[in-house]
Write a structure and sequence with these properties.
Elements (H helix, E strand, L loop, with lengths): L13 H28 L25 E4 L10 H11 L5 H17 L4 H15 L4 H16 L5 H12 L3 E9 H10 L4 E5 L1 E4 L2 E6 L7 H14 L7 E4 L5 H4 L4 E5 L3 H9 L3 E3 L21 H15 L1
Parallel strand pairs: 1-2, 1-6, 2-3, 6-7, 7-8
Antiparallel strand pairs: 4-5
Helix pairs in contact: 1-8, 1-11, 2-3, 2-5, 5-7
Length: 318
């Protein structure tokens, strides 16, 4: 995956790139959240319909040093956001039929396997970057709103959304944490009424995509770094925070918080969660969630914003 010259793998270790990707995502998320709050104060944002609030028996109301972090693909939404986004771009003639067939196969594989293979997901992201290269950020943001309504809105897991709503009702912030592009993730977060999103930050110059990433995709360890950076900036106590994911790739993120939850878990995460007495919830079959462990008390910024955050980080390091 191509990246900025000062971020090339030859000059930075995998750990350093994960930290950089996480910090860039955290700054982009905070920037977009502040913009969202400003618009909300002016009454210019539409509110999505109220989610079910009957599910959770937590969290602790009024604990403003706690927050919740939700993985997106197969945790909040069925399937992968980037696949749905690709489908919407094909409809708008961004690429040809052969690329659609590739996206369709990747989405089918992802839904049937129910796991995130890093090489597979990177191949998908490279395809997406090549497709949007040369297009304006504003154009993709506008299209992203339409694609959410067309392909994503009906794929939100009601149970997971209820969990997120419980944190919001308790006065806590709720963030999506995903390898999906930060602008796509931010659209989804806003439409669900969440605080904001940490996502993969791509580069743009003068409002146009370059086809490059800042650091690396927000995946695995990079997610943990993003959560750590955001928690530090927001003054959160990670021991009082909650995190939710379906994938064993997110064990680093889940291990950071005091209240980790395995949602629709893959085999490796289910095993790991049971060994450590994490709580499990499975919405794929409609059966009542299995609870593991003792009861607990807490039972896209726009891409332009991401680019600005990346530039700020670069200057800071220089």
């Amino acid at each position: 995956m191509a990246a900025l010259g000062w971020l090339t793998p030859r000059r930075r270790s995998a750990t350093a790139r994960s930290v950089l990707a996480g910090e860039a995502a955290a700054e982009a998320a905070r920037k977009s959240s502040q913009q969202y709050e400003a618009l909300d104060a002016l009454g210019t944002l539409d509110q999505d319909e109220t989610a079910s609030r009957a599910e959770p028996e937590f969290p602790v109301a009024g604990d403003d040093r706690a927050a919740a972090f939700f993985d997106l693909d197969n945790t909040v939404m069925q399937g992968a956001a980037i696949f749905h986004f690709g489908r919407g771009l094909y409809k708008r003639k961004f690429f040809q039929r052969r690329e659609l067939a590739r996206f369709a196969w990747q989405q089918t594989w992802f839904r049937l396997a129910g796991v995130e293979d890093p090489e597979h997901m990177q191949d998908v992201r490279e395809s997406a970057l090549s497709i949007v290269k040369g297009h304006r950020v504003s154009e993709l943001m506008s299209i992203g709103e339409e694609i959410y309504d067309e392909y994503m809105a009906d794929r939100i897991w009601p149970g997971t959304r209820a969990l997120a709503q419980a944190h919001l009702d308790a006065g806590q912030k709720v963030w999506l944490v995903t390898a999906a592009p930060v602008e796509t993730a931010t659209i989804i977060a806003r439409r669900l009424g969440l605080t904001g999103a940490l996502g993969t930050v791509a580069e743009s110059v003068d409002g146009v995509y370059t086809g490059k990433l800042v650091g690396e995709p927000l995946h695995g360890p990079a997610k943990a770094e993003a959560v750590r950076a955001l928690a530090h900036a927001e003054g959160l106590d990670l021991g009082r925070c909650a995190a939710y994911s379906d994938s064993h790739n997110d064990i680093p993120m889940l291990s950071l918080v005091g209240h980790p939850y395995a949602i629709n878990p893959d085999t490796k995460l289910r095993r790991h969660a049971r060994e450590r007495e994490w709580r499990l919830r499975d919405y794929r079959t409609g059966r009542k969630a299995a609870k593991v462990g003792i009861p607990a008390a807490a039972g896209v910024g726009a891409l332009a914003g991401g680019t600005a955050a990346a530039v700020a980080l670069h200057r800071r390091r220089r």
